[in-house]
Amino acid sequence: MTRSLSPEIVILALVGYFALLLAISLVTSRNASSEDFFVAGRKSPWLLVAIGMIGASLSGVTFISIPGAVGNGQLNNSFSYMQVVFGYLLGYLIIGTVLLPLYYRLKLTTIYTYLEQRLGWYSYKTGAAFFLLSRLIGASFRLFLVAIVLHQFAFGPLGAPFYLTVAITLMLIYVYTFRGGIKTIVYTDVFQTVAMIAAVILTVKVIGQEMGLQGFRGIIAAVQESSYSKMIFLDGGWEDPNNFFKQFFSGALIAIAMTGLDQDMMQKNLSCRNIGEAQKNMLTFSIILVFVNLLFLTLGVLLYLYAAHVQMEMPRPDLLFPTIAFEYLPPLGGIVFILGLVAAAYSSADSALTALTTSFCVDFLNFEKSGKTEKEKRRTRFFVHNVFALVMLVVIVWFKSMHNDAVINGLFKAAGYTYGPLLGLFAFGLLTKRAVKDRWVVFICLLSPVLSFLVDKYSANLMGGLNLGFLILALNGALTFIGLWLISYSKSTPDLALLND
């Protein structure tokens, strides 16, 4: 049986949701200075930061793809994704005990300033540029997927062109972030994280009721008894994409690179009052994240069980959740899905837009050394925020115009390669006391992703069927590290020694 949800009801639910976000923004952005925008005056409550980081780390892509991957029979099959999550815990431990103390000791606004102090001007600009590129493509891709859903079920049926759907999507983010920045996002992300988790719990409950399961105990029993409950994969060897050791160590590297070396994720941590609170935030965030991912995977199993229960024709994995929510569940299921998707996407995208603005203003416009007045900084910051919002609009519409999912997914994957050079740069700075020929760093950081891509492309043929998977990040970082070593020389000064103590 197929059920429908009118576009008017979807839009009405979205209006109510964003009214709450705007109300939070108006309260939190009063008299916000540039320091408030960048690091919330370094006064953010650590518990709120921890809760908000959950939403920022789980994008709209994750909201759809993690449940869908449960039954795809390939990467992240069944509960194997938890092996990556366990690896995250090791990565977050390193972030909390190594990277955060460094960032706080140097009182950084953007984390890439460390590269200038440790390696040089070109290293600094290269690291910041890689972040801008990767975050711009990544955030645009995630919003692109959300815009497609909103266009299909809300604005498109009313005759709105796709670019207008995208413009509305970005405008809503812009309105509640352009004044307060991180000071506002710390609070809006808490709201959106709670909304996202509530959406998953409600969806689990609705599907359980539709299947006649007796409460959450019945749901848990159905999941445990299903063929999707396997979590640890040790039998397939290194050729298995779900191999425990491959996924565990990949998870650790992903956490270090895409959280610890990412201005978007670290900006909230740097807004805490001190290093102690930032570390408590990191610990709390790590624990909550484990249970949230278990919840998403439980939902994924239920989606596949429900699809078999109603004997529906199976769509591709990343369309399973929206198809069931909009076409098979009661109207409440569709509303809950769309609000959960928007909450997941916006809690990631709003901080990305703010982080892009922060990095460009500090790393390329030298806000901290410019001597500009607060009024001049605010005017420039507004302009940069506008430009990045416009650029994201253009990129998303461009994605749509290509009509080629393979190319778009390839661009998103390519953006992930840019974290390898960041991993190599920071590892070299932290693990050695050698200086580098700074002007050569750009060449090394451009060459490493290219070599990594070629190895990844031909690894199965060259290495007896071995699929690197997430470990490509480790290779990328290692190649950058080796390249930096080749252009390095021995030099120990008090400043360098201080930064490596």
Secondary structure layout:
Layout: H1 7-28, H2 34-39, H3 46-57, H4 60-69, H5 81-105, H6 113-118, H7 121-155, H8 162-177, H9 182-210, H10 215-225, H11 244-260, H12 263-269, H13 275-310, H14 317-327, H15 331-364, H16 374-402, H17 405-417, H18 419-431, E1 435-436, H19 441-462, H20 472-486, E2 488-489, H21 494-499
Antiparallel strand pairs: 1-2
Helix pairs in contact: 1-8, 1-9, 1-15, 3-9, 3-13, 3-15, 4-13, 4-14, 4-15, 5-11, 5-13, 7-8, 7-15, 7-16, 7-17, 7-18, 8-16, 9-10, 9-13, 9-15, 12-15, 14-15, 15-16, 18-20, 19-20
Can you describe this structure?
It is globular, with a radius of gyration of 23 Å. The longest helix is centred in the middle third of the chain and has 36 residues, at 275-310. Strands 1-2 form a two-stranded antiparallel sheet. It has a domain at 44-146 and 172-401: Sodium/glucose cotransporter (Up-down Bundle). The chain is built from 21 helices and 2 strands. With 501 residues, it is mainly alpha-helical. α7 crosses α8 (162-177) and α7 (121-155) packs across α16 (374-402). Mean pLDDT is 85; it is low at 493-501.
